[in-house]
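Structure first, sequence second, as always.
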């Protein structure tokens, strides 16, 4: 069957690629969790009432999960939703076209929103997501990214809460993938 063959070819290619890939740890588990607590405090201070965390799938799922529990520990009880956008495919370069794949039903009109992504690179994904949320009449939207690569920015967007600013390197782990691999790593590493 074509699909099975393609999957086997892909797995073989990934195994070969993995042998060549070196991972260099950038942020370990305790560094990440300390920073997530700080981000939760900083963001919570900007939301006087209740708010909605909107995560961008797939890359932000681990970050959002930790962020939500950090919010709980400081007495915040946000709602949570996810939007699924896609821009990367299986390469290391963004395709440049962001599109919406999966959307939620939650009514955002009049709600304060914290939009969360894993990484801001060119800025396309976050700007596109901001546009979608503005169309839903959110009363206010703040943005949060675990990682920011400002040197790669192509569109003008300032992120309100950034975990770590990094240079132009390709990273994986803590929900972030390379060709659908490495999301399970509890740390963040760059691939060489
Ligand atoms: P942007 O639209 O160019 O800002 O890219 C943002 C999206 O690209 C993020 O949501 C990530 O999923 C993905 N991305 C950007 N840099 C990396 C990386 O270094 N590793 C894995 N994914 C990345
Ligand atoms: Mg992403």
């Amino acid at each position: 069957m074509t699909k099975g063959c393609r999957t086997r070819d892909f797995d073989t290619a990934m195994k070969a690629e993995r042998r060549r890939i070196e991972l260099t740890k950038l942020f370990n588990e305790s560094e990440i969790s300390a920073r997530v607590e700080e981000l939760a405090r900083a963001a919570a201070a900007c939301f006087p009432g209740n708010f909605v965390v909107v995560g961008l799938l797939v890359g932000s799922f681990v970050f959002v999960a930790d962020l939500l529990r950090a919010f709980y520990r400081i007495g915040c009880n946000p709602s949570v939703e996810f939007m699924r956008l896609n821009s990367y495919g299986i390469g290391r370069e963004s395709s440049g076209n962001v599109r919406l794949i999966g959307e939620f039903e939650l009514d955002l009109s009049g709600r304060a929103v914290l939009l969360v992504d894993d990484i801001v690179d060119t800025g396309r994904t976050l700007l596109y997501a901001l546009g979608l949320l503005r169309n839903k009449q959110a009363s206010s939207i703040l943005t949060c990214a675990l990682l920011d690569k400002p040197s790669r920015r192509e569109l003008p967007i300032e992120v309100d809460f950034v975990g770590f600013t990094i240079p132009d390197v390709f990273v994986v782990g803590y929900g972030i993938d390379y060709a659908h691999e490495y999301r399970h790593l509890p740390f963040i590493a760059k691939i060489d």
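Margin note: The mean pLDDT is 89.
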